[in-house]
C-alpha cells in the first residue's frame, strides 16, 4: 500500500518502521519540517515530504499527532484526497497536553471529534497500545499469545484495510463496530494499553464503563509521569489494575 504519515514521533516513527519493513511505500510529514526526519528517512527509506505532499496519491493516511494538533492542520488539507483514501486516527485526548475540549468532556468520542474537525470519516486504531508494546510485542499470525488491537469506524472496507496493517505489525485486529462506540478503546478503558489477546480483548472491551474513563485516564497518566518509561510492562500491569479496581467499584 501507499501510506502517508502525519506525525513521525514515538508512535508515528514506530509505524513507519513497521510499514516499510512490511514492504509498504511510506511518505511522512511532521510539524517542524523535513530536516528533523532525515535520519528516519535514511533508516527506513520512507520519504520526508510536506503536509500537502503527504496526503497526495496514497491509499491510507495515518494521523498520529497530539490531538490538539488536529486543529493546527491546514484547512482543506484533505480536499484533494479521494474519498476512498482511508484516514486512520491514533490520537488520544489528554487535557494536560491538549487543553480542555468541551465536546469531548461532554462525552463525544474522541475520534468522532477528530472526524468532525477533519470533515472526513476516520478509523480509530493503534491508540490503545503503548508504542513500546508495538515495538516489542508483535508476533506471527496464529501464535496463541498474539495481542490484539481494536479497530473502530463506520466503513467496513476501511476497517479491513487498517486490519491488514495491524496484522503487518504483528497484532490481531478486532473490528469493534462504529466510531460512536470507539470510546470503549479510549484512555482509562479496560482495552487501553493493557496488552490483551483477542479473546481477552473481546471480553474486556464489552465491560468498559464510560463514566469511569476520565478517572482511569488520570490514574494511568500519573503512573507514566512518575515511573521509568523503559519499564513499560509495569505500566501495562498498572493499567490492568486500574481496570480491575474499576470492576469492583
Ligand atoms: N507514544 C505512545 O505510546 C502512543 C500510544 C498510543 C497513542 N498515542 C497517540 O498518538 C499521537 C502521537 O503520539 P506520539 O507519542 O507519537 O507523539 P510525539 O512523539 O510527540 O510525536 C508527535 C509527532 O506529531 C508531529 N506533529 C505535531 N503537531 C503536528 C501538526 N500540526 N502537523 C503535523 N505534524 C505534527 C510532530 O512533529 P515535530 O516533531 O516536528 O514536532 C511529531 O512528529 C498522540 O495523540 C498520542 O496520544 C501515542
UniProtKB/TrEMBL annotation:
Domain of life assignment: Bacteria
Classification via InterPro entries: NAD(P)-bd_dom_sf, P5C_Rdtase_cat_N
A family per Pfam: F420_oxidored
Domain Pyrroline-5-carboxylate reductase catalytic N-terminal intervals: 2-93
Name of the protein in question: Pyrroline-5-carboxylate reductase catalytic N-terminal domain-containing protein
Amino acid at each position: 500500500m501507499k501510506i502517508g504519515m502525519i506525525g513521525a514521533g514515538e508512535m508515528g516513527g514506530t509505524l513507519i518502521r513497521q510499514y516499510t519493513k512490511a514492504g509498504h511505500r511510506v511518505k511522512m510529514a511532521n510539524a517542524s519540517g523535513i530536516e528533523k526526519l532525515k535520519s528516519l528517512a535514511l533508516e527506513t527509506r520512507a520519504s520526508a515530504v510536506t503536509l500537502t505532499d503527504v496526503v497526495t496519491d496514497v491509499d491510507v493516511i495515518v494521523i498520529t499527532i497530539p490531538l490538539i494538533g488536529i486543529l493546527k492542520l491546514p484547512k482543506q488539507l484533505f480536499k484533494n484526497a479521494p474519498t476512498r483514501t482511508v484516514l486512520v486516527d491514533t490520537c488520544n485526548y489528554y487535557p494536560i497536553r491538549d487543553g480542555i475540549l468541551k465536546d469531548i468532556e461532554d462525552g463525544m468520542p474522541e475520534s468522532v471529534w477528530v472526524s468532525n474537525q477533519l470533515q472526513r470519516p476516520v478509523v480509530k486504531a493503534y491508540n490503545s497500545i503503548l508504542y513500546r508494546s508495538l515495538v516489542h510485542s508483535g508476533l506471527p499470525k496464529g501464535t496463541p499469545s498474539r495481542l490484539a488491537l481494536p479497530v473502530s469506524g463506520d466503513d467496513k472496507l476501511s476497517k479491513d484495510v487498517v486490519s491488514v496493517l495491524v496484522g503487518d505489525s504483528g497484532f490481531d485486529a478486532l473490528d469493534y463496530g462504529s466510531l460512536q462506540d470507539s470510546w470503549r478503546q479510549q484512555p482509562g478503558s479496560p482495552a487501553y494499553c493493557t496488552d490483551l489477546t483477542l479473546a481477552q480483548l473481546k471480553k474486556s472491551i464489552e465491560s468498559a464503563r464510560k463514566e469511569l474513563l476520565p478517572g482511569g485516564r488520570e490514574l494511568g497518566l500519573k503512573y507514566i509521569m512518575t515511573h521509568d518509561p523503559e519499564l513499560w510492562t509495569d505500566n501495562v500491569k498498572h493499567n490492568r489494575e486500574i481496570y480491575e479496581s474499576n470492576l469492583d467499584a
